[in-house]
Automatic annotation (TrEMBL):
It comes from the Bacteria. This is Magnesium chelatase ChlI-like catalytic domain-containing protein.
Length: 52
């Protein structure tokens, strides 16, 4: 299954467009963050993994 969500994030008074794409399939568990995530996003990997 493939899902795509468009949302926004606020950074100060700036509004940033966020595009989240997810592909779920059977098999081995893998989770990747692509792009240029900052340290806070990298630290959230475990919270996202536990949500799955």
């Amino acid at each position: 299954m493939v899902a795509r969500v468009n949302t926004v994030a606020f950074q100060g008074i700036e509004v940033l467009d966020i595009d989240v794409q997810v592909q779920l399939s059977g098999g081995a568990v893998a989770f990747n963050v692509v792009g240029l995530p900052d340290k806070a996003v990298g630290e959230s990997r475990e919270r996202v993994r536990s949500a799955f």
